[in-house]
Specification:
The complex is a heterotrimer of chains A (368), B (373) and C (71). Chain A is an all-alpha fold. In chain A, 76% of the residues lie in helices and 0% in strands. The longest helix of chain A has 44 residues. Chain B contains ten helices and 15 strands. In chain B, helix 4 crosses helix 7 and helix 9 packs across helix 10. The N and C termini of chain B lie far apart (94 Å). Chain C has 71 residues and is an all-alpha fold. Chain C has one domain. Chain C has three helices and no strands. In chain C, helix 1 runs antiparallel to helix 2. Classes of the chains: A mainly alpha (368), B alpha/beta (373), C mainly alpha (71). Chains A and C meet through helix 13 and helix 14 of A and helix 1, helix 2 and helix 3 of C.
Chain lengths: 368, 373, 71
């Protein structure tokens, strides 16, 4: 893993889109509609705009240290002891995100179609499959995401299109009222989840070519527009009043889709698509966590480290939140500051120290 | 881990396949088809004095099957109705398996019937209990029972074996061919309209002939479809989760026209002293909201059943079109004036009495006769 | 309780001992560190009382803030 360019730009673009979409399509929608009401579809758009700005920060940092990923930059800039601390912090951050992803997944599946299955069963099985793919390396992850994207996009939007038979423009009137617009900008947790979690993709930067900036910002923008369109479709097909009361609006939306009163259970298609998106996000996180520790500690064998990470992630998933109510409180209060620490504070620190070091170096050279 | 040599290929492949079997997490949640009690219709009743809730589950009898040679099950009823009473929906769920030998599966139900006294008392619990279940599809139509619940839920229907299916098919036909049933009659529409402080009009279900029904073989052996059957009549106006009024056929047609529903309706008009049966459908529908609301309707007329008389000249036809349009406008106006009293609301219009209605009619469809005999 | 300890120690212990025997000390201690953390989390899960991480972070942040805020 010495930064050879082995991912094409387009593969990284799809990876970014699928990573951000990850769990948002069934976790985020309910709270977004509750805050934003009829104009809730604007929330992912402004969140995505900020997400692009955050990405500029990371790409700038990367350009100052070309060929190095987050961990290597920390070690180079902060030195061995502090850099290791930063790397370990990032490791725990990636494990936490993975815990959230797995927990959201098992809550969704046990809440809708498989109520008797214990949560850890889902966690462990998803981890085994995702880890197997992540173990094959960056190229596999990127190529897999690229191959799966058309299989995800077309069925998903096809089913949403089928559900629009219940569309009613009245559900959007009156639009752009000042109270709802205020609520939209108050919803700052959109910045933390999902747009600051993209820091995990920093571990892939050394493998992408020169169009990294364009691909990443394009991916973030595409994901933001996709989420916004999904929210828009849900408001138009379900209405704000119902969405605010439903736990999984997108599941309820497709559950009510009936083709000619004969095919009534098409919601299984949506569930499969959402699961595949989660695999992709999980692969990225497993790879990121794995690489973080591998580059810090440099063990000789790979599989024991992977096994340890899987154990930790499987243990983190049931532990990360107590229930969906506490999850909601955590999201409202802490998601943005918590993710900002890892996604903004530390990279800004690294940037600042880089400048100071470069400036000091220049002064030293001038002084000679 | 395991060396990658051609010799270890088969054991490695077997190991990979065995590990993949780990992905089959169906152990806990698997249910075989013959373990399910498939519900086709649900009935709900609440005694307002005691608060006792009674749920009726009409469950498919798997031993009767429809074959091309006719009903094969002989004397077996196509559905069984299980009646469960309890103080709450939770208690009903708790005790239903004292009688029911299979797991209740409501995802394929075709209709929810609510007793009138429960509808007048409040339907909020029904919406909640259906939406809270992951398999409770909120797209199922709701009907109000015009007769006692135990009679309705124990009545079989001829021609269409499952009463729930029969009711559901009739709702579609009434909506498209008679404009007596609206588009928005599902649980989700009730929830949405109530949350928006609007009204929703649900169809009313009654029994005809013998109720509860006699044996299935008696029903299939008789010619008269009215010996024992269900009938959809009238409309129930629901406001604030409570039933407040009933609408008759003419009022229903007026209401759905004002909503802009596109279905055929039939009316006999007196045109120049002569009766003529016209089929009509909304061709164009537009509204202007705001201070002075206006509703503009353009009706497409058809001579599908006009056997009494047909106009012979263009002038006659235009006079007829104008008279029909005026009659429809007057009826709609009358309905609007009574709207508040009936509890009916029009979407996004504050006062239905203030609405100005414009109707024009145009002959669009002729029939096979140019002139009646 | 017993079942949990059984599978956990079998799994983690075997790998740990294997790494020590192969004289890969770095790997062994890295794995030990990860297993220790996992043990803490999995112990809570086995007792049906998972140790909630976000609650701990919440308490930590409130604790830190209370040190800095007056009164």
């Amino acid at each position: 893993m010495d930064g050879k360019i082995i991912i094409r730009g387009s593969q990284f673009y799809f990876l970014t889109v699928n990573y951000i979409l990850g769990t948002t399509l069934f976790v985020l929608i309910q709270s977004v509609v509750q805050s934003g009401g009829r104009d809730a579809w604007l929330i992912p758009l402004w969140g995505g705009l900020c997400g692009v700005v955050f990405a500029f920060l990371w790409i700038w940092l990367y350009r100052l240290h070309p060929g190095k990923d987050l961990v290597q930059i920390s070690l180079a800039v902060l030195g061995r002891p502090l850099g290791t601390v930063a790397a370990v912090l990032y490791f725990f951050h990636f494990v936490m995100i993975a815990g959230f992803v797995l927990r959201n997944l098992s809550d969704f599946l046990t809440g809708t179609i498989m109520p008797q299955t214990p949560g850890p069963v889902f966690h462990i099985m998803f981890l085994i499959v995702a880890a197997y793919a992540a173990l094959q390396g960056v190229e596999t992850i990127a190529r897999l995401s690229q191959l799966l994207t058309p299989l995800l996009v077309f069925p998903f939007w096809f089913v949403i299109l089928l559900a629009t038979v219940n569309w009613d423009w009245v559900r959007f009137i009156p639009a752009f009222q000042p109270e709802t617009l205020a609520g939209i900008f108050r919803y700052h947790s959109i910045l933390g989840y999902p747009f600051l979690e993209t820091i995990a993709l920093f571990m892939f930067f050394p493998f992408v070519g020169h169009n990294l900036g364009r691909m990443m910002t394009g991916g973030i923008a595409t994901a933001a527009v996709s989420i916004s369109l999904t929210v828009f479709a849900i408001i138009g097909s379900l209405g704000v009043e119902r969405t605010a009361h439903l736990n999984f609006p997108i599941f309820s939306l497709v559950e009510e889709v009936a083709l000619n009163e004969v095919i009534i259970n098409i919601h299984s298609v949506i569930s499969i698509i959402l699961l595949v998106l989660i695999f992709i996000k999980l692969q990225v996180l497993i790879f990121a966590a794995f690489e973080t520790l591998r580059q810090t500690v440099k063990p000789k064998l790979r599989w024991p480290l992977l096994l340890g990470i899987l154990l930790l992630m499987a243990g983190a998933a049931p532990s990360v939140v107590e229930n969906s109510i506490q999850n909601g409180e955590w999201t409202r209060k802490y998601v943005f500051p918590y993710n900002a620490f890892f996604g903004l504070a530390i990279p800004i620190l690294l940037l600042a120290v880089t400048w100071i070091k470069t400036a000091a170096g220049k002064r030293r050279r001038k002084g000679r | 881990m395991i060396p990658r040599t051609p010799r270890t290929r088969r054991p490695r492949a077997c190991l990979a396949l065995a590990l993949a079997a780990v992905l089959l997490a169906g152990c806990w949640d698997k249910t075989e088809l013959n373990e399910l009690a498939i519900v086709t219709m649900i009935g709900l009743d609440e005694d307002p004095e005691t608060g006792q809730i009674t749920a009726y589950y009409q469950i498919v009898n798997p031993l009767t099957s429809v074959t091309t040679s006719g009903s094969a099950g002989g004397d077996q009823a196509p559905v069984y109705t299980y009646t469960v009473s309890g103080k709450s929906f939770g208690e009903i769920r708790k005790i239903i398996y004292k009688m029911l030998p299979r797991k209740l599966f409501i995802a394929y139900y075709r209709a929810v019937v609510v007793s009138e006294r429960m509808a007048r008392h409040g339907m909020q619990d029904i919406v909640n209990i259906i939406q809270i279940q992951p398999t409770g599809r909120a797209s199922v139509p709701v009907l109000i029972a015009g007769d006692p619940m135990d009679k309705i839920m124990n009545t079989l229907t001829p021609l269409e074996m499952y009463p729930g299916e029969s009711v559901s098919l009739r709702l579609n036909l009434l909506r498209q061919q008679s404009l007596l049933v609206g588009k928005r009659i599902a649980v989700r529409d009730v929830a949405e309209r109530m949350e928006r402080s609007e009204c929703v009009v649900l169809p009313i279900l009654e029994t005809v002939g013998q109720a509860p029904s006699p044996n299935f073989s008696t029903i299939t052996g008789t010619v008269n479809a009215y010996d024992s059957n269900l009938r959809i009549t009238g409309g129930a106006v629901i406001r604030d989760y409570k039933m407040v009024a009933r609408l008759n056929d003419d009022q229903l047609i007026a209401y759905f026209l004002l909503l802009g529903n596109k279905g055929w309706f039939t009316k006999q008009f007196m045109v120049e002293g002569r009766p003529i049966t016209m089929n009509a459908k909304l061709g164009k529908f537009s509204r202007k909201l705001g201070e002075k609301p206006r509703i503009m309707l353009h009706l497409d007329l058809a001579f599908h059943y006009a056997i009494e008389y047909m106009p012979k000249s263009q002038a006659e036809l235009e006079r007829m079109e104008r008279e029909v349009a005026n009659k429809v406008r007057d009826e709609l106006r009358e309905f609007c004036l009574k709207a508040k009293q009936l509890g009916v609301t029009l979407p996004k219009i504050q006062n239905p009495e203030d609405v100005r209605i414009d109707v024009n009619a145009h002959l669009e469809h002729v029939s096979s006769l140019t002139r009646p005999f | 309780m017993l079942a949990f300890h059984l599978w956990f120690i079998l799994l983690a212990g075997t790998v740990f001992v294997y790494l020590l025997v192969r004289k890969l000390r770095r790997d062994a201690w890295l794995f030990f560190f990860l297993s220790l953390l996992s043990y803490g989390l999995w112990y809570g899960i086995s007792q049906d009382q998972p140790f909630t991480i976000t609650k701990m972070i919440d308490q930590g942040i409130r604790g830190v803030l209370s040190v800095f805020s007056p009164g």
